[in-house]
Amino acid sequence: MAENFKLKIITPDRVFYEDEVSMVEFNTVEGEVGIYREHIPMTMIVAPGILTITKGDEVKEAALHAGFTEVLPDQVTVLAEIIEWPGEIDVHRAEDAKARAEERIREHAPGTDMRRAEMSLKRAVARIETVKK
Fold first, then answer.
1. Model's pTM, two decimal places?
2. Taking a C-beta distance cutoff of 8 angstroms, is the pair 6, 53 a contact?
3. With 90 as the cut, is the pLDDT of residue 71 above it?
4. Pick from 132, 118, 122, 121: which is nearest to 49 by CA?
5. CA–CA separation, 129 and 123 (whole Å)
6. Is the pLDDT of residue 133 over 80?
7. How far apart are CA 113 and CA 62, in angstroms?
8. Phi/psi class of residue 104: alpha, beta or left (left: φ > 0; alpha: ψ in -120 to 50)?
């Protein structure tokens, strides 16, 4: 069994999660990462997706939208702009946001900020997938 490390997830308005865990997984701008105790120290930019917390046999998931991560050998800190547990997500609102983002991308009208539309789509998909798991 993997040794535990401290995971702390902070948003601008609350401490979202703080506990000893065996692994955490999430998306970065460089790709997906999985962190165990004694990971090499680094910082990363978070990308929208599902954050998975493993603590023994228990697995929790949340929709993580943006932020930064500091990884130390015995601690991981996530500074998240937005992160939500499945029970905090309005799936109908997320589905509407997904449809709007897909339409903006499909139409690609002049003046459309494609990067913003793509990020909106990724955030909506992360919310939907987190609730539906």
1. 0.85
2. no
3. yes
4. 122
5. 10
6. no
7. 27
8. alpha
Instruction: Give the span between the Cα atoms of 20 and 30, in whole angstroms.
Output: 26
Summarised one tens digit per residue, pLDDT across range 15-68 is: 999 999 999 999 999 999 999 999 999 999 999 999 999 999 999 999 999 999
Task: Give me the residue label for tokens 């603590």.
Answer: 55
At how many degrees (to 10) do helices 114-132 and 91-107 cross? 150
- What does the buried/exposed string (b/e) look like for 67-96 if buried means 16 or more CB atoms within 10 Å of the residue's CB? bebebeeeebbbebebbbebeebeeeebee
pLDDT in tens, 61-70: 999 999 999 9
Query: What DSSP assignment string belongs to the chain?
Result: -PPPEEEEEEETTEEEEEEEESEEEEEETTEEEEE-TTPPPEEEEE-SEEEEEEETTEEEEEEEEEEEEEEETTEEEEEEEEEE-GGG--HHHHHHHHHHHHHHHHH--TT--HHHHHHHHHHHHHHHHHHH-
